[in-house]
């Protein structure tokens, strides 16, 4: 009802809030539909440090570690590689493997852009699980 009559012949105006409630309900439905489609971050496997009384062991021959230095140089298990050949080399290594897991190790002064580029190349070469290794984790802290 838009207008109601007061006691002594004066009119009292009341706002019609029904259209406002309809608009709010539509907005709630829109935001409920959009929320599940928000992007999430990449899943990452982080190796756990060894117990306090045990020394960290070096990776075995089956573990692939891509090391990125601060100046942008890249190595695969202590073997120098180039950014252009990284994807094809990793694809050749993981072509016959059932376990598609590799790790990325960056130095303290390495730009995150280099690490992200390495992860992108690794994912593009067929590696499904990419783990991160930090200096503190390697030292057992």
Strand percentage = 15-25%
Number of domains: 2
Q: Which CATH top level class of the largest domain fits?
A: Alpha Beta
**Overall SS class:** alpha/beta
The low-confidence parts are none
Number of strands: 7
Named CATH architecture of the largest domain:
2-Layer Sandwich
From the spread of the alpha carbons, the general shape counts as elongated
Describe the structure.
The protein is α/β, with parallel strands linked by helices and 141 residues long. The chain has two domains: 35 residues, no CATH class; 74 residues, Nucleotidyltransferase, domain 5, CATH 3.30.420.270. It is built from four helices and seven strands, in the order ββαβββαβαβα. The strands form two sheets. It has a five-stranded mixed sheet. A two-stranded antiparallel ribbon has the order 1-2. A hairpin with a 5-residue loop joins strand 3 and strand 4. Helix 2 packs across helix 3. It is elongated and about 95 Å long. The termini are far apart.
Topology:
Layout (H helix, E strand, L loop, with lengths): L2 E3 L5 E3 L4 H17 L30 E4 L5 E3 L2 E3 L1 H12 L6 E6 L5 H13 L4 E5 L1 H4 L3
Parallel strand pairs: 3-6, 6-7
Antiparallel strand pairs: 1-2, 3-4, 4-5
Helix pairs in contact: 2-3
């Amino acid at each position: 009802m838009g207008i109601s009559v007061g006691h002594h012949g004066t009119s009292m105006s009341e706002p019609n809030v029904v259209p406002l409630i309809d608009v709010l309900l539509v907005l709630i439905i829109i935001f409920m539909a959009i929320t599940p489609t928000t992007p999430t971050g990449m899943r990452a496997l982080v190796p756990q440090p060894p117990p306090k009384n045990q020394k960290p062991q070096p990776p075995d021959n089956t573990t692939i570690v891509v090391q990125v230095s601060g100046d942008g140089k890249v190595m695969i298990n202590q073997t120098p590689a180039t950014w252009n050949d990284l994807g094809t080399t990793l694809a050749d290594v993981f072509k016959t493997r059932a376990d598609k897991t590799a790790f990325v190790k960056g130095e303290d002064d390495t730009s995150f852009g280099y690490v992200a580029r390495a992860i992108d190349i690794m994912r593009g070469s067929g590696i499904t699980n990419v783990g991160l290794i930090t200096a503190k984790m390697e030292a057992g802290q």
